[in-house]
Amino acid sequence: MKFNHNNRKRYLASVTDRYVKGQMDRRTFLRSAGKLGLGAGVLGLSATMPFGGRGGFINSAQALEIQPDADMMAWLKDAAKPFAGQTIKLATESTPPSNAINSALKPFFEEATGIKVEIEVLPLEQVLQKLTLDVASGLGTYDLYYIDQSWMASFSGDVIDPREKYEANSDLAMPNYNMDDFLPALVDGISMYDGIMVGVPYDIPIFITMYRKDIYDELGLKVPTTMEEYMANAVAIQEAKAPEIYGTTGQMKSGHYSLECDWTCWLWAHGGSIFGPDGKFTGNDDAGMAAMEYWIKLKENMPEGVTTWTWDGQGQSVLQGIAGQALSWGEFFPWWDGPDDSKVSGLMEAAVPPAPAAPLRTTDQTGYGEIPGVGHQGGSSLAVSKYSKHQDAAWLFAQWATSFDTQVYITALGGGTGPTRESVYDDPRIKANAKPGIPGTTRHLDVVRETIASHMGSEPDLPEWAELSNDTIPVELGRFWAGEYDSPKAAMDSIAKKVDGILKG
Amino acid sequence: MLSPGQRMLRALVAWMVVGIFFFPIYYWFTIAFRIDKEIFEIPPLLLDFTFSWQSFEEVFGITIGAKGGLEVVPGGGNYYMVPRLVDSIIVAVGSTALAVTVATLASYALSRMRIPGQHHFVFWILSTRMMPPVAVAIPMFFIYKNFGLLDSHLGIIIVHALMNLPLAVLLLKSFFDDIPQEIDEAALIDGASRFLIFRKIVMPMAIGGIAATAVLCFIFSWTEFLFVLTLTQTSLKTVPVVSTTFVTSTGTAWGKMAALGVTAMIPAFIFILLVQKNLVRGLTLGSLKQ
Question: How far apart are CA A328 and CA A467, in angstroms?
Answer without folding.
Answer: 23
